[in-house]
Request: fold
Amino acid sequence: MFRRVLLFAGVTLSAMPTFADSVSGRIDVVTRTPGMVAFWDFVRREEGGGKRFIAHVPEGSANEYALDAANYVKDYWGAGPAASYADFPLMGRGPFGEAIRIRREEDPDFRPFLFVPRSRLHDTPLDIKGAGKSVSVVVWAIRESGNHALAGIWHEGTDLKQKETSAIRKVERGQRQYALFAGLNKPGSACGHVSENGASSFLNRYALHKCNSLGIAPEVAADSPAEALDAAWHCFAMTFNHETDELTGWLDGEAGDRWLENPKEDKLISSAYEAWKQGYAKTLGLENADFPEDQYYFPPEGEPVAVTPLGEGVELREYRYTKVEVVKQGGIEVRDLVALRLNPWWYPHDLYTPAEDGSGGPFTIGRVIHSSRSVGFTGWIGGVAVFDRALKAEELKALTEIGKTPVSPTKQR
Reply:
């Protein structure tokens, strides 16, 4: 008889073929994974009252991170209706027994999400920030459309000067920490996003420290037949490992190498290209004093991984995070960044620590607060888990496997 063994950082769990049909067994795999701080399966709810979704948390934890429903456009612009749990239809099954739908809302003043307010998460284990901290976010989802947020602490701010903010009533600076997106610049990929300052990167208006898995989740209509939906689940994940300074996106347990060629021509990453130029210029004593040094982006470029001749006096040097074209002219080397690695992405900072003034962002699921108010991701979300460490490839593979066969919430737990 086939027998599968799952290894979790020294913890060994054995599973028989019937394991995939046991909801309680699936939950155990997630909650026993070292570093788990919160796991919402969208089945577990409060007793009595509003019966909000609550998270599985480590034994002894007092905070179960109940999820409120809100329309952030109403909260910040004073427009649109209030949101409630009725705005998140349930599938009736999912990787852990249930799933919520994030719909393509046609009303531009209606952008509902589920969230844990800052007042209920500040300085708790979910508030992962500061020196020496790593994080992983895992989301089991069916992507119908969009490339924006799945889950995390990622208040993009409402202070950008643009058309959408002309009538805003509540202006707040960005309070970004960590989050998982459905691709952003590479729609359908698993995109991890982190910030060291809550705001922007490389003098751009946006935060740009992000990674993209090589794999892409295809679009599947959220109202597809049950059989099509059951085959469409994907496990999106991001890990940030502070020991290696690497931010990595994973789709279905696979990271894959992703590079961006010619970054100086990219609409956004050209800002990282300029930051690389400043870092390189500093090595020559030619840096621009007006460019803040903490915004340089100069990944390690010691011994090349590979060197490829391109012509007389010209070669391509590949490093772990960059590819640099080197032209040798009269004993002098002229260097130019011609490719930047998007997965993993080099991130040499700590995760942003908000001031102790209540200004930090909430933890949100389905959307984040942001100035452009776009529809964002649409589809189904069947589980959200957060860990205070960088999960390993084998752990992410195991988490992918347990979510492949949907079950109903009435299944024995």
Notes: The chain is about 10% helix and 30% strand.
